[in-house]
Amino acid sequence: MLAILLLCFFTICCIWKLLRLYTLPSPLDNVPGPPRQSWLKGNLAQFFDLYDWKFLDDICETFGSVVKIQGAFGDKFLSFLYVSDVKAIQTMIKNGDVYEENSVYLSLVSEVLGPGLAATTGHLHRRQRKMLSPAFSPHRLREMAPIIHGVAHRLQQGMLAQINSGATEVNIVPWMERAALEVIGQAGLGCSFDPLTEKADNVLGATAKAIIPALSALSYSRLLLPYMLKLGTPAIRSWIAARIPSRRLQHLRRLKKTLREEMSALFYAKKEAIKRGDEVILQDVGEGKDILSILLRANMNASETDRQTDEEVIAHMAILTFAAIDTSSTLLFIILELLSKRPDVQAKLRTEIIDRRQGSDPSFDELINLPYLHGVYCESLRLYPGAISIFRDVHSDTIMPLSSPVRGKDGKWMSEIHVPAGSAICVALRGCNTTKELWGEDAYEWKPERWLSPLPEAVLNANIPGVFPNLISFLGGERGCIGYRFAELEIKTILSVLIESFSFSQTDREIHWCKGDVRFPTMVKENNPRPCMFLKIEPCNAAA
Question: Mean pLDDT over residues 292-311, rounded?
Answer without folding.
Answer: 91
